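seq:
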Amino acid sequence: MSSPRPQSRRAFVRTLGVGAAASALTPLVHGRGLEALAATPGADAALALAAPGVIKLDSNENPNGPAKAAMSAIVDGLREASLYPRDRVAQLRDAVAAAHGIGGDSVVLGCGSGEVLRMAVLAWCGGGRPLVAAVPTFETPATTAALIKAEVRGVPVTGDLRLDLDAMAQAAKGAGMVFLCNPNNPTGTLHPADAIAATIDRISREAPGTMILVDEAYHEYVTDPRYATALPQAMARPNVVVSRTFSKIYGLAGLRVGYAMGQPAAVAQLRQQAVGLNINQLGALAALACLERPELVRAARDENRTALDFTTREFRRLGYTVADSQANFVLVDLKRDAQPFRDACKAAGILVGRAFPPLTTHVRISIGTPREMERAMKEFARILQTA
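struct:
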């Protein structure tokens, strides 16, 4: 039986063999830097590839890569590469639905959750219908809104780096969609289930024509007992959808598999904006393998929490403020312009997150393996003490 632990790059090479791994690793590792490349004009594409010795802490990826079960599914699935993935995509949709106890017509798949967010903005914003989003939050909804010339009502996060739910509910009047990222990227902070439910209820009353998308990309990493998915809200209300992804805890960022859930009518509106066959054969097979192994989530969550707690504790020991993160990254306030720190980290072979205005003194640092974080913290301390 396959090990429940995610598989390292070195073990991956042993599994596939040197020749097969050489051809397979390039797109897989390149996917680890996709978020940073997509959001940073002029980004150094060469650094997105995991060069020997480089510690990549810039794109919130699973540092262990796909699990063995997913890797086996990918290798076996190469035999189906000549076939269109319709059957596997339908199988994945039904498997996602079954995993959440909902019907298949309540699930729409996307090329990562990024496409799902894009689909939502295209479906519900524009034509005088603004987007409401936090500042900062994950950028895809706002960048998509800009492409279609839809107004973006940006609502700054609070002093403790949480979504300002009251202000977002107020801004929802007359809007096409409200984007709630919970836990929020890049802050890592979350709101408990009752706060999200109360906000959804308020927006539904005060702005009944406004859709609400709750992005739960980091759902599986959460350990706060006050948190719960907003899926029950999505299944009970026609104006709420929830998005998820296989990119993060499942380690499939390079294969681009995401999905959204909600009432069939809302999902049908999203599906109209989707690219045909937006899930590839290997991505579908890998995601199916992950759904069959729920213990993978527990193991990855536990390892992430160990490294996250260590990193948070060490930065605080050095005197820096770290937001309470419930994701696989931390946001650290360096109390000065963070760009020189990023540059120094890059020179030391550590890639950290891009800037998230207006938090220009903050740096987002993804969580690597415990060993990577021990190495990285030594460099962080040296760089900060030198500065």
